[in-house]
Amino acid sequence: MTGRLNILVVGGCGYIGTHMVKALMAAGHHPITLDNLSTGHRDLLPGGEFIAGDIGDTALLDDIFVSQRIDAVMHFAAFIEVGESVSDPLKYYGNNVARTANLLNAMIRHDVKRFIFSSSAAIYGEPDYTPIDEDHPLNPTSPYGETKLWVEKMLAACDNAYGLRAVVLRYFNAAGADESGTIGERHEPESHLIPLVLEVARGKREHIKIFGVDYPTPDGTCIRDYIHVNDLVSAHLAAIDALMEGAGSGVYNLGNSRGVSVREVIDTAARVSGRPIPVVEDRRRPGDPAILVAGSTKIRNDLNWQPRFESLEEIVRTAWKWHASS
Ligand code: UFG
Questions:
Q1: Candidates 172, 193, 219, 254: which one to mutate for ligand 1, based on the most atoms within 8 Å of Cβ?
Q2: Which CATH fold topology does 6-175+226-254 show?
Q3: pLDDT at position 313 over 70
Q4: Mean pLDDT estimate for the chain
Q5: Would the pLDDT of 324 be above 90?
């Protein structure tokens, strides 16, 4: 284990960022959150230091890197809506790529050379085969996925040119909430399946639309690999330990390697909540691959990572605890 580290968490007020900050504190580290609060929630930040600001603000970044020694940077400050990235691509290229380049530039200027990047399964596009391993071709089908690919390319070039060591984690479907029930997923507007289904269970929505029931899957609905947010977070802790011990850059899928259909998610949520969940069958949502399941052998072997949340039921139970109390 590494000693107490100063970790700059950009986007620390978001869904995954808040869980990361909590885990960093529990591990004895000092998280410094930088968040512009465009989608994050200051009231959900569990602690550590907070700086309101943007990774596009060069003077602010210089201040941060000069005023304290930063051991590593974790980057959660991206826009994530696939559909919006199609209708407003420059919002995505501007923030997810250009401002990330600004952040990397500041890091290099101040000799901070450890980086953990939240990438996405969206980088693969329509899969040629499943489970998807890290060698699968990268063919993003949306500007959102493209922005993740651009950053991955930038990181490889920065490693080569400046010795920046980056661990890239390609998330599959992040889900669930901290077991405490004090932090969880709060997107506005909400577009992700599990929180939407739980809003139906709470009576805040009348029904859940299933986007496509004619996919080539056993029940006709899309299959995804849902991974608990605290399992994502534990992978970041393992990545930090590896970087501190001198490991080189690496790219890893982050999923449970277990596919679950949209209908199975809905049935599980009905069971966990004990409430009825009315369903409306709708057309396919453009750009949704039928099956996205991670091959996660590499991260299990290299970083000795193991998910704690084995079943979808456990994941949904934590999400329900959060939703029922928020
Ligand atoms: N779905 C519905 N009804 C809804 C919402 C979603 O049927 O109201 C379905 C989708 O069609 C999909 C599944 O539920 O089959 C999961 O959808 P989400 O929107 O929750 O998640 P995605 O798999 O679309 O997106 C996730 C991440 C993105 C990432 C993408 C990679 O949230 O950031 O995986 O393709 F880009």
A1: 193
A2: Rossmann fold (3.40.50)
A3: yes
A4: 96
A5: no
Question: What is the model's pTM?
Answer: 0.97
Active-site entry in 15, 92, 124, 144:
144
Q: What is the mean pLDDT of residues 155-173?
A: 98
Q: What is the pLDDT of residues 244-274, one digit of tens each?
A: 999 999 999 999 999 999 999 999 999 999 9
Same fold, 6-175+226-254 and 193-225+257-325: no
Residue pair 45/15 in contact (Cβ under 8 Å)? The answer is no
pLDDT in tens, 66-78: 999 999 999 999 9
Known active-site residue 144: yes
- The answer to whether the CB of 262 is under 6 A from ligand 1 is yes
What are the domain boundaries of the chain? 6-175+226-254, 193-225+257-325
Q: Tell me which residue of 122, 153, 158, 128 sits closest to 140, measured CA to CA.
A: 122
Ligand 1 centroid to residue 245 C-alpha, Å: 36
Ligand 1 close to Cβ of residue 164 (< 6 A): no
Q: What fold, for 193-225+257-325?
A: UDP-galactose 4-epimerase; domain 1 (3.90.25)
Q: Look at the chain and count its residues.
A: 326
Is the pLDDT at 1 greater than 70? The verdict is no
- What local confidence, expressed as pLDDT, does residue 47 receive? 97
